[in-house]
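Data deposition worksheet. Section B asks for the primary sequence of the deposited chain exactly as it was used as input, without tags or linkers unless they were present during the calculation. Section C holds the resulting structure in token form. Section D is free text for depositor observations; keep each observation to a single sentence. Incomplete worksheets are returned to the depositor.
Section A, Depositor: J.P.
Section B:
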Amino acid sequence: MWLTAPLGHEVAEALGRLQRAPDIQQIAVMPDVHLANDICVGVVLATSRLIYPLAVGGDIGCGMLAVATNSTAEPLRDPKTAGQILAGLAKGSPKPAS
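Section C:
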């Protein structure tokens, strides 16, 4: 999980249900994770043979940003460091219009 804040209870429950679905091999949780109708938006699913067409929400990529760095992936292996990096990126990112 790549989060800057703890998961909400409803999101955690939805992810638990998803984890128990057939053929789910792995789930990656992105910083923009939130509830949607049938599945949490902001997740990436790895399966070996099934396709979950509802796994892509209408607001895919909301709040996401690709940032080029000169760093390796190694610092992201430590959850505390990864959280600090994500929090720093969030501070420097434009805020959505209200």
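Section D:
The chain has a mean pLDDT of 81.
Residues 9-92 form one domain.
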